[in-house]
Write a structure and sequence with these properties.
By secondary structure, the protein is mainly beta. Helix content is about 10%, strand content about 25%. Strands 4, 6, 7, 9, 11, 13, 14 and 15 form an eight-stranded parallel β-sheet that branches. A five-stranded parallel β-sheet has the order 3-5-8-10-12, with no helix packed on it. A two-stranded antiparallel sheet has the order 1-2. A hairpin with a 5-residue loop joins β1 and β2. The longest helix is centred in the first third of the chain and has 14 residues. It starts with 18 loop residues before the first strand and ends in a 12-residue tail after the last helix. About 5% of the residues have low confidence.
């Protein structure tokens, strides 16, 4: 997992970003978060270069960095911290994540099709014009996300959580939503066509699978 050193700036409670040794490898003596980093551009370029030159990335803390139009196809991230990051214009296939954090990140105009993300958190994140089509996103946390014109079509969302998510013009067509939790969602023009909604959980009283009550699917959702 990424290091959890607290930023050395007085009063700051953010975690310090990863730093790099003379060989460009991650070391554990980072001092500042991105906001208080003395040379933000240099550190950002070091992080970009590390991602470019490594297919397997473990324990990277890049919280607060903006990633614009970089290539993540086939990259594998394990235990990384991308909280509060901005992802702009990503066009990648086969992105892989395990036990990484994207909480409160913003994804805009991104294609992350055929991704494989498990035990990964997107709590409070924003998805604007994002394609996750054909992805395996199993046991992930999407609680509190805001999703606008985004597609999860043809994806496996088994046992993931969308608690109190705000979903607008968002599609879950032909998805596996078995044990996926959609408590207290706000929604407008959301489609679950061809998905197994009877095995999803839309209400704290239980899943449709056990209740046999189609009324548990919130009104306005397209089945």
């Amino acid at each position: 997992m990424y290091m959890t050193n607290v930023c050395s700036f007085p009063g700051c409670k953010r975690t310090a970003l990863s730093s790099f040794d003379e060989n460009g490898e991650i070391c554990e003596d980072g001092l500042y978060c991105y906001k208080h980093e003395l040379d933000q551009e240099k550190l950002k370029q070091q992080i970009y270069e590390y991602i470019r030159t490594h297919d397997k990335i473990v324990g990277l803390n890049a919280s607060g960095i903006t990633f614009s139009n970089i290539e993540l196809t086939g990259k594998r991230f394990y235990g990384c911290n991308f909280r509060h990051c901005f992802f702009l214009g990503l066009q990648s296939t086969g992105f892989r994540s395990r036990m990484s954090a994207f909480d409160f990140a913003v994804f805009t105009d991104c294609n992350l099709i055929e991704s494989n993300m498990q035990f990964t958190s997107f709590a409070g994140a924003k998805f604007i014009h994002v394609l996750f089509t054909g992805s395996d996103m199993i046991q992930d946390n999407f609680s509190g996300v805001s999703s606008i014109q985004t597609s999860f079509d043809d994806s496996d969302l088994y046992n993931s959580h969308f608690i109190r998510a705000n979903l607008v013009d968002t599609s879950f067509r032909n998805c596996n939503v078995k044990r996926t939790v959609f408590y207290e969602i706000n929604h407008k023009n959301v489609s679950f066509k061809l998905s197994n909604t009877k095995e999803a959980i839309f209400d704290k009283r239980g899943s449709e699978l056990f209740s046999g009550n189609d009324e548990l699917v919130p009104s306005g959702l397209i089945k």
